[in-house]
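Input structure tokens:
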């Protein structure tokens, strides 16, 4: 299947999606051409789901950066919190930058079915993101108790509470899982920006790339629909919205 044919399947749900490989290539071009830095001067943190498919489909060129430091847990929420962000900030090269890639993920099979993918070695499709689908199932069945966060399933309970706060919006949507993923993205984006605001970085720039990571079957690869691309110049405290770079 050609690249354009694969993109056509993904873009039925996410019209601005690009391959994750193209996302990384565009970012590296920006870092080298506009910031005059080498990838080896960039310390990466990702706040994406701990699902193994995200490691399997992680583009090889991303390893030209330093890291990644892992901020995220289930469906990408930055569960390491302020301590994790502070630890990551202390690892960056002095004359370099930090790059934070964050957001939830969702599966789209080659048949165009949202919420599932065909994983390597399996005979049947499986859920993606399983945590989001599980929390959504509880929401649809009125099984989420407001404020219920336990020690034994803390991360899942947080995802449940995020969806519970937007229950009416999600359940009235055309596709509940698609909308739930949007809701989770917004919660992650808000928390990442809060953590960045409260953290000191001893480097030149903070690069924020907020997105929904779209996984597909093992022979399809992964895709990214980018929702935020901000660059903070720490010397001037100037913040630029550079999202059009990815939406040409």
């Amino acid at each position: 299947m050609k690249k354009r044919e694969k993109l056509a399947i993904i873009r039925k749900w996410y019209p601005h999606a690009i391959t994750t490989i193209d996302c990384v290539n565009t970012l590296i071009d920006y870092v080298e051409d506009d910031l005059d830095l080498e990838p080896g001067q960039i310390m990466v943190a990702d706040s994406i789901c701990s699902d193994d498919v995200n490691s399997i489909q992680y583009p090889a060129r991303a390893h030209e950066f330093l890291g990644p430091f892992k901020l995220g847990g289930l469906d990408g929420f930055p569960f390491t919190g302020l301590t994790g962000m502070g630890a990551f900030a202390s690892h960056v090269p002095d004359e370099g930058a930090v790059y934070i890639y964050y957001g939830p993920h969702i599966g789209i099979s080659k048949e165009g079915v949202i919420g599932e993918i065909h994983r390597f070695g399996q005979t049947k499709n499986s859920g993606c993101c399983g945590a989001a689908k599980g929390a959504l199932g509880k929401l649809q069945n009125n099984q989420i108790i407001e404020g219920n966060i336990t020690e034994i399933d803390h991360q899942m309970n947080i995802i449940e509470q995020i969806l519970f706060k937007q229950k009416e919006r999600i359940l009235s949507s055309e596709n509940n899982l698609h909308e739930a993923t949007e809701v989770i993205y917004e919660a992650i984006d808000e928390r990442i920006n809060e953590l960045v605001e409260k953290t000191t970085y001893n480097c030149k720039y903070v690069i924020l790339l907020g997105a929904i990571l779209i996984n597909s079957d093992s022979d399809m690869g992964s895709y990214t629909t980018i929702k935020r691309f901000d660059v903070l110049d720490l010397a001037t405290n100037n913040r630029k919205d550079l999202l059009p770079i990815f939406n040409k």
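Residues 44 and 68 are 5 Å apart (CA to CA). The two ends are 24 Å apart (CA to CA).
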